[in-house]
Amino acid sequence: MRTQQEHALVADALASEGEVGVVTPQHLCFPEGIELVCGQRLAPLEAVYETYGTLAPDKSNVILLCHALSGGAHAAGKHHPNDRKPGWWDLYIGPNKALDTNRFFVICINALASPYGTTSPLSIDPRTGKPYHLNYPPVCVTDWVELERMVLEHLGIQQVYAVVGGSTGGMRAFEWAMRYPERVRKALVIAAPARSNPMVIALNHIQRQTILMGLKHGGIEGANRGLMLARMLGHISYLSEYALWSKFGRDTVPETDFWSVTYQVESYLEYKATTFLQRFDPFCYLYITRAMDNFDLGATYGEGDLRRALARVQAEMLFVSFTSDWLFPPAGQQEAVEILQSLGKRAEHVIIDSPWGHDSFLVERVKPQLKPVIQRFLES
Amino acid sequence: MRTQQEHALVADALASEGEVGVVTPQHLCFPEGIELVCGQRLAPLEAVYETYGTLAPDKSNVILLCHALSGGAHAAGKHHPNDRKPGWWDLYIGPNKALDTNRFFVICINALASPYGTTSPLSIDPRTGKPYHLNYPPVCVTDWVELERMVLEHLGIQQVYAVVGGSTGGMRAFEWAMRYPERVRKALVIAAPARSNPMVIALNHIQRQTILMGLKHGGIEGANRGLMLARMLGHISYLSEYALWSKFGRDTVPETDFWSVTYQVESYLEYKATTFLQRFDPFCYLYITRAMDNFDLGATYGEGDLRRALARVQAEMLFVSFTSDWLFPPAGQQEAVEILQSLGKRAEHVIIDSPWGHDSFLVERVKPQLKPVIQRFLES
Q1: A-B interface: how many C-beta pairs under 8 angstroms?
Q2: String of DSSP letters for B107-119
Q3: In which band, very low, low, confident or very high, does the pLDDT at A366 lie, cut at 50, 70 and 90?
Q4: CB contact (8 A) between residue B266 and residue A296
Q5: For residue range B172-185, what is the model confidence (pLDDT) as tens digits?
Q6: Domain count across chain B
Q7: Which of A54, A57, A376, B104 qualifies as a FRET site for B313, CA 20 to 30 Å off?
Q8: Residue A319 and residue A265 in one domain
Q9: A251 and A170 belong to one structural domain
């Protein structure tokens, strides 16, 4: 329990926070494209990124922020003052926020295969003049890191103060510390392990197969409904039973339909999936979930031996997990932390007691617990 | 930890077990049918059941066993000596097994809407001469209990020594103790709460909508693929991350396909779903999962007040949960047990430490823990 004084301190800290205001996405084009791990070249390559705060003359204050599955480069602020919602991590980015833009220059780059501007399955395949769709090449977390490296180098940034990410963004942050150990001073990995577990693969398989079944039998209309169902499953894997009880319990809707929606939780899932469909794409979803499955740092950097792989790390690392996260349970992160510590690396694991599941790092009421953890790590 | 002597006792107990041998399903017809809770009458009504052991002359040794979602009346033994597999709870039914057929007369009745013989969406609708499919009436757990009561009364059985069930079978066992308190001496509820939680409803919603999407876009072929995907999701909700790690880890298959099967866990899910499709039906699945969602004893017997509902119970009750069950976590059962105890009822909760998830009651290696718990309860 917090004392009244501590409560007041937290309240003060939150009260003094500012906003990043209106931001403009930046576009880059690499005409020569990118050589992917699968051996294919994706060219031309466009990349979209956003930045918040001011780059120090010596470029020593860069935080590379990595977005999760359904996120994009738009992490904070608004594109237009009338936007209903700010970027996906506005809670944590801004003046006096955890990623304090008075001090840090935060950059977030849209990942390959994500539908938010970087070349994706929705982009035009120059060979056909039509969208890539399933002709887009397979991508992996390593490719995501490579794109980020290319964008940073284009901006003249050779080293980052910190790389930060949650979920698949956390995978990216972790891989940065492995792939470019000398370029990362600190790595903050939130709710992401060193490798995807078979529960994640199983859930992703069902989600992909649902989209592919829709596509097979119902074309784009079917694929879209498949994406909605995939999102519903993904969505509940980010939540917890407690979260569903506290939001919906067993409440029913006023006009029930036996085969569609009887319960509030069903109505909520359908509504959220409808809004997701408006902003996402089934083909992108297929590629990104497969990249997630294939993430295995031990395989990529240690020939199957995670300990050998982790020996590469030079950054100071902080792992954050949430007690109720059943997609990437704390045990997965703990395994990595224990190996790092046994190797004499600077690694710490903070397990936050939160009933809100995997998505806790996006939930406002977890902020009083998570913000000081991030601040302490970034400012030490 | 068990002592060596205790290990020897367990080994002895298991070694002396016998088999029920070859069994024959029994058929019953109720020409007048059944009046369902929804107000519709389902007629004619056929019911299939199996029995194991010998009915005592005074009928005092009846155990009503209730099967789960994908089970049926065939709980033990084989229909033919060459059958590859015995009934679904053969581990626990037979001479000197937990449901000891030297002493008890065990009866298991196939539930309404299940495809194993009792009138279901696959049966011929006498009004059309075609299978009911979506013209089958909505059924609920209460209807399942009523069918069981009708079969028992047909056999002249007015009271049962015990009612036993796991998962949706546990819901039925629980409802028996509420609906017919004077007819049940003991009720054993395994991995089932007093009401379905919103996580269950959410998972079932996705499963149903996947089947319905398949049906809409791909007819019966699509519905069948939808059923496979629904089963995959159901299946992983009965397991645990630990179970998936220990069975598959991140192992890949020899011939990988980027969009279908790369990992062993995917291959396993596809294989299990294929065998499920051979023995189950998408329409039945729709009806049974909705019955599961709608299960809420507080609503049915207490006008929304579970305490008021549980005041009806007269039976001695045992609830068994498994630590790693994330579909019906122990907390759900604990809530009911605490209310029952506070009402002065004879109710106990045994939480078995098992890493195998919801399906632990079907897993052979949990038997050394579960068998003595059941025996102690039935033989006290």
Answers
A1: 150
A2: EEEPPTT-SSSSS
A3: very high
A4: no
A5: 999 999 999 999 99
A6: 2
A7: B104
A8: no
A9: no
Active-site residue, A358 included: yes
pTM above 0.90? yes
Q: Which of A240, A264, A293 is the last residue of a domain?
A: A293
Q: What CATH number is attached to the domain comprising B111?
A: 3.40.50.1820
* Nearest CB to A225 within list B138, B213, B290: B213
Using DSSP, state whether B364 is helix, strand or coil.
Answer: helix
Residue B251 dihedral angles phi and psi, to the nearest 5°? -60, 145
Which residue among A276, A293, A310 closes a domain? A293
pLDDT of residue A255: 87
Segments forming the whole domain that contains residue B27? 4-196+296-379
What one-character-per-residue DSSP string does B64-99 give? EEE--TT--S--SSBSSTT-SS--TTTTTEETTSSE
pLDDT of res. B257? 86
Handedness of CA B210, B212, B214, B220 (dihedral sign): positive
- B239 and B288 together in one domain: yes
Q: Are B173 and B297 in contact (CB under 8 A)?
A: no
Interface predicted TM-score (ipTM) = 0.94
Angle between helices A4-15 and A367-379 (to 10 degrees): 70
Whether A217 sits inside 8 A of B217 (CB atoms) is: yes
Per-residue pLDDT at A12: 64
Angle at B53 between CA B51 and CA B59, to 5 degrees: 85
Using an 8 Å CB-CB cutoff, list chain B residues near A229: 206, 209-210, 213
Cβ contacts (< 8 Å) between B294 and chain A: which residues? Answer: 262
Nearest to A199 among B198, B236, B260 (CB): B236
